[in-house]
């Protein structure tokens, strides 16, 4: 799961249980939909990416810099400096585990589980929106 700074889930990818997180970094960046802002082309890439030590690899840092994304990833075997910022993603993962169907996977088919995941992330987005927009 990749979120923005306010905790809105931008993209989720369903993988196997024993996959490394680093293998899904670039597909998650690609899965972010274009965001409209000022006039002109919609922005696709974020300005910065904050991640934990599991994403520490020089080739992925280079890929992020080529896309114009500043990586804030702590180096392995050092003190974690991004822990105060990463709580947003951890909070979204905790919110996803409140849904019973997502806490323990009951479905064998991945498309059904992905549908429940999309429904849960849209409910999280709905609750995070300010009341003035609703």
From TrEMBL:
<dbReference type="GO" id="GO:0004803">
    <property type="term" value="F:transposase activity"/>
</dbReference>
<feature type="domain" description="Transposase IS4-like">
    <location>
        <begin position="3"/>
        <end position="123"/>
    </location>
</feature>
<dbReference type="GO" id="GO:0006313">
    <property type="term" value="P:DNA transposition"/>
</dbReference>
<dbReference type="Pfam" id="PF01609">
    <property type="entry name" value="DDE_Tnp_1"/>
</dbReference>
<protein>
    <submittedName>
        <fullName>Transposase DDE domain-containing protein</fullName>
    </submittedName>
</protein>
<dbReference type="InterPro" id="IPR002559">
    <property type="entry name" value="Transposase_11"/>
</dbReference>
<dbReference type="GO" id="GO:0003677">
    <property type="term" value="F:DNA binding"/>
</dbReference>
